[in-house]
Amino acid sequence: MIENIQKRVLNVLEWNNVLYELEARCNTLMGRRIASNLVPLSFEDTRFRLREITELKEMIIQGDAPDFNGLSDVSPLLNIIKKDGALSLEELFQFRNFFLASERLRDYLYCNRMKMEFITKDFSRLHKLEYLKELLAASITDDRELSRSKYPHLKKIWKEIISKKQEIEKKMMRIINSPSTKNILQEKIFSIVNERYVILMKANMKGRIKGTVHDHSSSGATLYVEPDEIIDMNNKLSMLQIDLQVEIKRILKNLSMEVGRYADEILENLNILAYLDFLYASAKLSISIRGNEPEITLEPVMHLRSARHPLLYLMNSKTVIPSDISLGEDYNCLIISGANTGGKTVLLKTIGL
User: Do the Cβ atoms of 206 and 220 come closer than 8 Å?
Assistant: First the structure.
């Protein structure tokens, strides 16, 4: 295992730099975690993973790569739900995208199951979370808003708020355009302060219009006044907005509870898809360094053909000289000699990696 390899050896081989290149090609935080903690596997597990990477690599080369858009780490949000918490609209939108991505990747794997026999063995455990996908897709729009068609009561409150705002604004325009306020107002517009409609009155005209002062400008020259004649309308608007928030909280709580019912399935999908992202990054890195799937054996035999140091190749592919190296059959010892220009070290590091 990697923990049994001396850290000094790993540092000499620049192992962390290789892992960095792998992490950089991951689409998700979860995939990067797997890449950063990469360790050697058993003989059979290594062969299996190599086949998985090759299968995905061939799909990428053919122009049929998986789409990870919308896949993110939702495990912290599940912890909130487990503590009987309600998620925000933005957090539920993250779940909405996760379910859409999960279903899209599941369909991708199913449609290509004949081309990726090794991968589909591992990914057949993916749960079909169609109910949650459809629920959140119907409940939350692409604009990150609750769907009014899905929730009639929410739509009713919204309509009442719009109607009340229009009523207030008509009244405000009559006040603003009244001849009696011509020399009293700072500007012939209305504004909103603390969710209350107000007019902009000159500070030296204070008291000329009956109302409540809610604020003043930074210069002190303008007062933001709520006229007495619209107080009742503003109060009714405030009550409607409270009703709206209560309804929104109720919906968000219900949606959060529905998501929480499938927490175990979601976490399992998350881990599986994170591993797929890691395989995708491995395939991308293999393409970047012109890598090939090695044939591995339990015998102490090594044949490297046109081997290139991966980090050097990524830096400048045109200047890296490939090497053919064989050990373990005709001879078991190799003497590397030459001028002190770094070539011997590069060759040893290439073999080591």
Answer: no
| Structural element, H or E, at residue 131 | helix 130-139
What's the whole-model pTM score? 0.82
Judged by average pLDDT, the poorest of 30-39, 106-115, 122-131, 298-307 is 122-131
Please identify which residue in the block is written with the tokens 């220009």. Answer: 341
Q: What angle do CA 26, 27, 33 make, to 5 degrees?
A: 55
* Cα–Cα distance for residue pair 68/271, rounded to 1 Å: 14
Q: What whole-number distance in Å separates Cα of residue 293 and Cα of residue 51? A: 8
207: left (phi over 0), alpha (psi -120 to 50) or beta: left
The Cα–Cα gap between 19 and 32 comes to 9
CB atoms within 10 A of CB 7: 9
- CA 81 to chain CA centroid, Å, is 19
Residues comprising the chain, all counted: 353
DSSP state of 146: B
pLDDT band at 342; cut points 50, 70, 90: confident
Q: Which residue has the higher pLDDT, 188 or 241?
A: 241
| CA distances (Å), origin 263, targets 127, 147, 301 | 11, 24, 47
pLDDT at position 28, please? 93
Amino acid at 278: F
SS3 209: coil
Query: Using CA atoms, how far apart are residues 186 and 198, in angstroms rounded to an integer?
Result: 12
Span 264-275, average pLDDT: 94
Instruction: Pull the structure tokens for residue 319.
Output: 């200047």
